[in-house]
Structure formats: C-alpha cells, structure tokens
Amino acid sequence: MLIITIKQGKEKSLLAGEPWIYASAIEKVDGKPNEKMKAGGTAIVQSSSTKFLARAAYNSKSQIRARVWTFDEGEPVDHALIKRRVKAALAKSAAAAKKARPDQVVKLVNAEADNLPGLLVEQYGGKDGYLICEFQAAGVDAWKVPIVQTLIAETGCRNVYERADELVRKGEGLSFVEGALAGDEPPDEVPVTENGVKFALDLKTGERYKFR
To answer: Which of 13, 40, 113, 158 is least enclosed by beta carbons within 10 angstroms?
Structure first.
C-alpha cells in the first residue's frame, strides 16, 4: 500500500474537505516502485505526524498527485465503494433523466461533485440510446470496468462509449483511448434540442454543428 505523507501545515486543505492533493503539498511517498508507477493506485494519505487523513488515487505523472476517494478511515476503496458512488450519482440525476426528451443530453455523473473524481457521464436517447463517458483522471480510469458495469446495470442502457480529451489525458499521463466500451458506437451525428435551439451533435467528440 502506498503511503503519502503531507508536509506540515499543508494538511489544512484536506481537513477542510479539499479533494485534490498537489505535488507541492507532499513530503514523501512510501511504497514499492511498481506501486508508485501504477496510475490510479490507492494510497493512504497521512499528516506529518502520521495521522490518517484520507484514501486517494495516486498518480505520479499528474500535477494533481492524488485525488481523494474518502476521508473516512473505515471506508475501503473497493468495488463496493465504486458501485455505491455510481448508484448515488445516478439517483441524484434520476429526475432530470426521467424528464428528458429523446433529443436531449443529460449529465448523469459530474466528477468531484459526485465523489467520482474525473468521471463525466452523459446520456442521450434514454434507455435505448447511449451513455458517453469521459475518464479524465487515473483513479476512475483504473476502475473503468466496474464503473461501466454499474452504469449498464442501473440505467439499462446497453451502449456505452468512451469519449476522450487528448490534452486532459496527456496531462494525467494516460494514453489517448476512445471507442465503444459496450454495445454499439453512436452515429456520427444526432439531433439535439437545447433551450429551444436544434443542432446536430457528434456524441463521440462533443462537437456541435448546424442542424441540416
């Protein structure tokens, strides 16, 4: 298990609930070399006096060295936690998803706001449409399989596509990956109506076009 020790005085932001740990706040990282190099591996975060502060996803290649999963010492980071977080995010966005028309895009998971740092999920076309996921941090990227499995189980939507922002993933030291994670890829363009305005949207890239 990796152990991140925070510099004395730098733990204040964590105690206040800040979920990001920058390289400048870290005194040292203890652990096996292969664990340190594994993007998204779980680490215990402690103060300079070895007091438990959090469990976080560690990434040696990012300026945000760690993103907090939990401040609760008794809460392990495992499949059960990931499933709970995804289900909670979907429950929070359920009303908006239920009201959405088939030609609307609905945000189902919103990264840190849903305690899933770096994960963005949108839905188009309801149950028979598409889930579009972006894994913008190493932690959620490492848990991609259980995240997708839970999304499918809870929404009933069988088509899941991974969209990628190349610059964001490069900044995280992650490879540029995009494509279908389950089911079919979305078409090149779908009609979308937003605030009464109709346009064409490429779900695979997020690009908008004048509706033809």
So the answer is: 113
CB atoms within 10 A of CB 55: 22
Residue 181 has which token pair?
């994670």
Q: How far apart are the first and last CA of the chain?
A: 55
Indicate if the pLDDT at residue 212 is higher than 70: no
Q: Name the pTM for this structure.
A: 0.93
Rounded distance between C-alpha atoms, residue 45 and residue 205, angstroms:
36
Do 42 and 2 touch, CB atoms closer than 8 A?
A: yes
Contact 175, 169 (CB under 8 A): yes
pLDDT score for 211: 65
- For residues 5-23, average pLDDT: 94
Phi-psi region of 127 (alpha: psi -120 to 50; beta: other; left: phi over 0): alpha
DSSP 159: -
Query: According to the model, what pLDDT value does residue 35 have?
Result: 85
Counting every residue, how long is the chain? 212
What whole-number distance in Å separates Cα of residue 112 and Cα of residue 13? 15
Beta carbons of 16 and 30 less than 8 angstroms apart = no
Q: What is the DSSP letter of 166?
A: H
Helix (H) / strand (E) element for 42: namely strand 41-46
